[in-house]
Amino acid sequence: MNTLTANLHTMMASFYHPKPDRFKILIEAKAFPSDHYAVISQLKLHGYDPEIGLIALSPRPGETYLRTSDIVDTIKNDPQIALVLFSGVQYYTGQYFDIKTITDAGRAQGCVVGWDLAHAAGNVPLKLHEWEVDFACWCSYKYLNASPGGIAGVFVHEKYATDFDRPRFAGWWGNEKTNRFEMSPEFRPSAGASGFQLSNPSVLNMTVLLASLQIFDEAGGIPALRAKSLKLTGYLEQLLLAVLDDHFKAGHIRILTPSDSAQRGCQLSLDFPERMMQVFEGLHARGVICDERKPTVIRIAPAPLYNSFADVRRAVACLKQVMDTVFH
């Protein structure tokens, strides 16, 4: 339903209920900008100063990604946190957060815990019900391959399925199917996440997503794809470190993403302190499709649904050619 940021607002309308003694929102520093805008606007909407109400947690000095223990400690040590809203996989660094541990910590402190799964859906295993996540939102145009502007999705934990008195944005598509076309002014929400729908979704968007999900099923689903992904990205990391050893030693490149495969998905974020755009353009000129995130990062993500080990080997060979030229 909707798109990702719209769904974040829809979920926060129902799950973020700040009080004078508990109003803060905890996110990771350098969260995707749209998430940042959304939580700031929610704080302002409720009359709170984002300078006080927003906690954007950064890695320790000299480190490139967050320690789970630091996230948990922040939650435990600030009783004013009302909402914990993290990314499942961090878009900039590629870190796959420990969703269960962070959710457990938040719930133990009485926080609502929500997740932006834009870079996690279709990429890593997710057990949202088992992990007792309160809500989650995701888009479908990254690893789910449903194209830019594709329909997004939400998860709402089953314990809220029949909480019909919960405040929410309401629209006719969230009404019970049995009386949706009675055109009654009384809103009777459907049970579960479907009760948070607002409007009739695009048939074209639904069709594109359905076609992609059918291919996921043909490929064996997330367990099979994750098994291949671990090997693909591990192979990418090993090749980078071996083939580009001189460039790593010279400080031309470093990897921001955790080396522990359990703490990452497909993506490796490569940091180029200098000449990132020259490297990026050189890769594209050689047919290596990746993307850049200014100021210094190139993201390479071998997708197990369609990328091969040969693709990874060729990409690293091209990167060496480019870097040898750029940093000659």
TrEMBL record:
Keywords, A to Z, come to: Cytoplasm, Hydrolase, Pyridine nucleotide biosynthesis, Pyridoxal phosphate
Q: Which residues are noted in the entry as pyridoxal 5'-phosphate-binding?
A: L4, T5, F32, P33, S34, D35, S87, D116, H119, Y141, W172, N200
Q: Which GO terms describe its molecular function?
A: kynureninase activity; pyridoxal phosphate binding
The superkingdom of the source organism is Eukaryota
What Gene3D superfamilies does the record point to?
Aspartate Aminotransferase, domain 1, Type I PLP-dependent aspartate aminotransferase-like (Major domain)
Q: To which pathway does this protein belong?
A: Cofactor biosynthesis; NAD(+) biosynthesis; quinolinate from L-kynurenine: step 2/3; Amino-acid degradation; L-kynurenine degradation; L-alanine and anthranilate from L-kynurenine: step 1/1
Q: Name one GO biological process term.
A: L-kynurenine catabolic process
**Which InterPro entries does its entry note?**
Kynureninase, PyrdxlP-dep_Trfase, PyrdxlP-dep_Trfase_major, PyrdxlP-dep_Trfase_small
Q: Which residues cross the membrane?
A: none
* Modification N6-(pyridoxal phosphate)lysine, positions: K142
Give the reactions, separated by semicolons, that this protein catalyses: L-kynurenine + H2O = anthranilate + L-alanine + H(+); 3-hydroxy-L-kynurenine + H2O = 3-hydroxyanthranilate + L-alanine + H(+)
- The EC designation for this entry is 3.7.1.3
Required cofactor names: pyridoxal 5'-phosphate
Enumerate the subcellular locations listed in this protein's record, separating them with semicolons: Cytoplasm
Q: Which family does it belong to?
A: Belongs to the kynureninase family.
Per the entry, what this protein does is:
Catalyzes the cleavage of L-kynurenine (L-Kyn) and L-3-hydroxykynurenine (L-3OHKyn) into anthranilic acid (AA) and 3-hydroxyanthranilic acid (3-OHAA), respectively.
Q: How does it assemble?
A: Homodimer.
This chain's protein is named Kynureninase
Organism equals Syncephalastrum racemosum (Filamentous fungus)
